[in-house]
Amino acid sequence: MNFSLGQRWISDTESDLGLGTVVALEGRQVNILFPASGESRVYAQAEAPVTRVLFNPGDVIRSADEWELTVSEVIEQDGLYTYKGTRLDNEEPTELKETFLDHFIKFNKPQDRLFAGQIDRFDRYTLRYNTWQHRFHRDQSPLKGLIGQRASLIEHQLHIAREVGQRFAPRVLLSDEVGLGKTIEAGMILHQQLLTGRAARVLIVVPENLQHQWLVEMLRRFNLKFAIFDEERCAEAFADSANVFETEQLVLTSLEFLTKKKRWFEQATLADWDLLVVDEAHHLSWSVDKPSTEYLRIEELSQDIAGLILLTATPDQLGHQSHFARLKLLDPDRFYDYDAFVEQERHYQEIADAANSILQEQALSAEQQQVLVNLLGSQGEALLAQFSAGDTQAKEHILEQLLDRHGTGRILFRNSRSGISGYPQRLLHSYPMAMPSQYKTAMNVMGSLGNGGPIELSAIRALFPEKIFQEFEGENASWTQFDPRVQWLIDTLNSNKPQKMLVICAKAETALSLEQALREREGIKAAVFHEGMSIIERDRAAAFFADIEDSAQVLICSEIGSEGRNFQFAHHLALFDLPLNPDLLEQRIGRLDRIGQTQDIKIHVPYFENSAQHTLLRWYHEGLNAFEHTSTTGHMLNQEFGDELLQLLAHNSYQDEVLGELVGRVSSRYGELKTQMESGRDRLLELHSSGQGKSEHLVEDIKVVDDSFELPTYMINLFDTWGVNQEDRGENSIVLKPSEHMLGANFPSLRDEGMSITFDRDTALAQEDLHFISWDHPMVEGAMEMICDDDFGTASVALLKNKKLPAGTYFVELIYIAEAMAPKSLQLGRYLPPTPVRVLLDKGGNNLAENVAFDAFNQQLNAVGRQTASKLVNALQSAIHPLIEQGNTLAQTQMEQLRETAKTAMHQAVDSELERLTSLKEINPNIRDEELKHFQRSRAEMDGYIDKAKVKLDAIRLIVVSH
């Protein structure tokens, strides 16, 4: 290397230092000052890791005085370069000596980095190209937003998620029965809307007691970090923003908070939202004369928010008028009058009855045939004749026509267990026991002191004698030493080893005492799960229970254990006590009774004979049939007969005859309600909601992606390249930790303390402390964005050892990116995603890319050291420049072809959907005008952005043949 004072050099190893200036030459050493960073370096002249900066004609350079020059000629004199050219600000010819170049110059263009000696390692160039390829395929994938959820692949859930998630500003009511996954469906819709850019700001409103469950569910299943807004959070945020709700993109709050706190509610209405989600929407009661405050709050919010998703398992719970009112929230123009709605529903019921007969392949009555002929028009009679003759295609065609015309089918989704297969049986095992004398004494003393208080409190005391005993003995109460349920639990666990059991009780104190008793008396490994634990502690407890080896046989939960956590890998459920609320009982059983459960569920209930516990057991089992069947009528029966039950429980005296008469009446009423619900089932709606089997291929497509090694291979390569430490944790899982050698200070979504991950869906479902990494995960999204937005791997040199080619033969590989800069909400990536365009030129300018595939070619190449690479580039620089110009021309030609292809695909897709919705609107008024206008606007906007799409050089690699 030949150094002279004033020359400009750039560091090969510390490119962030900026442009350096030679300030001293002492013996065999050179001193280079880097003014941009205020640093200086002393190097041995013979081995200095620096590269001389040389610009070429056509380049635009910047002076230290911040004016710019287009270079037309480069002159070297006394070891220094002088650049001649034209100033951009005044268009005057001028000269700029290299000493006065801008110190902050950063080489962003791949060719500039190559010629400046900022040459990347071989593997980084390969990783960059592969990243662009993955982004390209992912942007075009119809599965985007549907593969990242930590949930089993269930057809009806995926159908609803795809059907609703792909809509513009969806406004729907999700009303699947309990246990069919409404929260998961809503989360999948949100996930898809956020990932694809259809939504950016979301407000979720839930009952206060469900805030934590939703927070955990959104984070654990979908990696969506919502912030809970309550009085404390709003008061804090008000110091930083005039509108507290503008401080977060994803907000979770309670219906009670918005109802009671008018000040904060008004701010919520003034904030800009894309989507509003309301859980337990049956709480929004309404009547023509007096709508509830809760309803009015949501109505005001929903008027200015484009998207609205309502969730309820019991749409008619507060009456038919309230059901109409919720539909009115979704589409006030369509559902404007209750009487008109009732008349339309009567007509829809006729259609649904006829559809039920067709589904069950029963003969149609004359009235049903007339209804269908009137509805289907001229083709109706022919289709019905074909159906009567046993033509299955005619049956499917009739059902499709009916679905298109169905009244609320487009905005209402309701699946029932009777229409979904895959659920196990629930088997009750009850264990009568004598009440210990200690409990009897404590309860007698409590009674002599006077019960007082609400009747519900008296009932609760009678159901939990251990709590009364603790009130007298204090925190160190010894109830576990004499309570026969404790020994029963120990014996049951021992007799069922190694099968796992979930134990649920009402209070955290009970759970902790049980764990201590199991550990001290029998050495049984147990995990505890209660509301006093942090989310991380709960995750660890759940993981300890879920692990196969060296794990807990039993997980003991307080009531919070029946909220939001699923343990369908276990088949034994012990209810140490029973809740008063039938919905809570169903939640408890629902932790095991879910799709994906592989065995019948054994429900174990110990109880004290001839006590309030005995009474409640019979109420649930003989009256509500709640243990062995899903309790869809439990809430209604509890409202109708609950006061009588409370009277029996509060007296704490088992009255066999009175109880028998009560449960008899309840059982009879249960049968009536069940019959009404079954006869009133809208099977046409269920058919539409479940997807009619059309989502089978969707499940299979996602399984193909799940089973592929493409993502693990890519990410592990990325971890290795970036310097992220990896340790095997067990089958299908690894532990990631930041290292001191990482290329950047941070890696997307990687915590400072590390994290455990898996690429396997089943493993993630079984071990909740593992992060499920998919193409939808923010770590993957962030890592790919990090690679593509930086100059990582943009300039490289490689050797091709091939004796069939003369030594010194060279090739230039150019990677261009064709992209259109459009708002994310347009989802232009479906038609023109950032597209890598590869050009491989030999020295004659011939493009070999079509005949020489990247992967096959890449495997023949070898890495080369940076200094050797710089020498090769300098030697061939004059030959590389014209090849880059040739590549630019070829890439521009391909850009034109990509524009035409994208426009054609976009027009076909948008026009097809517009035509379908326009035709559908003629027979089903639930198609909103805004949806049609949205597609028309989008088509015109996407045309404009495609026309403006450009191609840019993203990476360059010089390949030289050696022997």
Describe the structure using short key phrases.
alpha/beta; 6-stranded parallel sheet
Question: How would you characterize this protein structure?
Answer:
The structure is a single chain. Helices cover 44% and strands 18% of the residues. It has 32 helices and 31 strands. Strand 12, helix 6 (231-237) and strand 13 (250-254) form a beta-alpha-beta unit. Helix 2 packs antiparallel against helix 27 (710-722), helix 13 (380-388) packs across helix 14 and helix 31 packs antiparallel against helix 32 (929-947). It is globular and about 115 Å long. The model has no long low-confidence stretch (mean pLDDT 88).
In short:
This protein is an alpha/beta fold and 963 residues long. It is 44% helix and 18% strand. Helix 11 (338-359) packs across helix 12.
Mean pLDDT: 88
Q: Count helical runs.
A: 32
Q: What structural category arises from helix and sheet content?
A: alpha/beta
Roughly what fraction of the amino acids lie in strands? 15-25%
- Biggest β-sheet, characterized? 7 strands, parallel
- Global shape: globular
Give the strand order, joined by hyphens, for the main sheet.
12-13-11-14-15-10-16
Q: Uncertain spans, ≥5 residues at pLDDT below 50?
A: none
Radius of gyration: 35 Å
Oligomeric state of this protein: single chain
The N- to C-terminal Cα distance equals: 27 Å
Query: Helix share of residues?
Result: 40-55%
Task: List the topology elements.
Layout: E1 8-11, E2 19-26, E3 29-34, E4 39-44, E5 50-52, E6 60-62, E7 68-77, E8 80-87, E9 93-97, H1 110-115, H2 122-140, H3 155-165, E10 171-174, H4 182-195, E11 202-206, H5 211-222, E12 227-228, H6 231-237, E13 250-254, H7 255-260, H8 262-270, E14 275-278, H9 293-303, E15 307-311, H10 320-330, H11 338-359, H12 366-376, H13 380-388, H14 392-405, E16 412-413, E17 426-433, H15 437-448, H16 455-463, H17 465-473, H18 484-495, E18 501-504, H19 508-522, E19 526-529, H20 535-546, E20 554-557, E21 572-575, H21 582-590, E22 601-608, H22 612-623, H23 634-651, H24 656-679, H25 683-690, H26 696-707, H27 710-722, E23 725-730, E24 733-737, E25 755-758, H28 761-766, E26 771-772, H29 778-789, E27 795-801, E28 810-819, E29 835-842, H30 854-859, E30 861-863, H31 866-923, H32 929-947, E31 950-962
Parallel strand pairs: 10-15, 10-16, 11-13, 11-14, 12-13, 14-15, 17-22, 18-20, 18-21, 19-20, 21-22, 25-26, 27-31
Antiparallel strand pairs: 1-2, 1-5, 2-3, 3-4, 6-7, 7-8, 8-9, 23-24, 24-25, 27-30, 28-29, 28-31
Helix pairs in contact: 2-27, 3-4, 4-5, 11-12, 13-14, 15-17, 16-23, 22-23, 22-24, 23-24, 31-32
